[in-house]
Amino acid sequence: MSELEDIQAIFFEEAEEGLATAEAGLSAMAEGDVSPDVIAGVFRAVHSIKGGAGAFGHGGLQDFAHVFENLLDEVRAGRIAADDRVCRTLLAAFDVLSDHVAAAR
Known about the structure:
Elements: H1 3-30, H2 36-55, H3 59-76, H4 84-104
Helix pairs in contact: 1-2, 1-4, 2-3, 3-4
């Protein structure tokens, strides 16, 4: 394995950790915990995945994560309420994000 492949493998390990963090946070949100800390944790996880995807040229993953991150930023800022409908949408987006990570791998 080349050094770049080793670094990319680390990205995918970190992406899996980020997905786990995002899933836990989104599940908490769906159960009613829409605290700023929970929302910020999900935002940071998606933001990190987006950054790593961009660094390794995974354009589809980066683009989707960017849109997901923008929606989370609106929720984080209070411009979009984290109601049941939004939480369901975020969980559906998480599934797509997970699929993008798997496809990029």
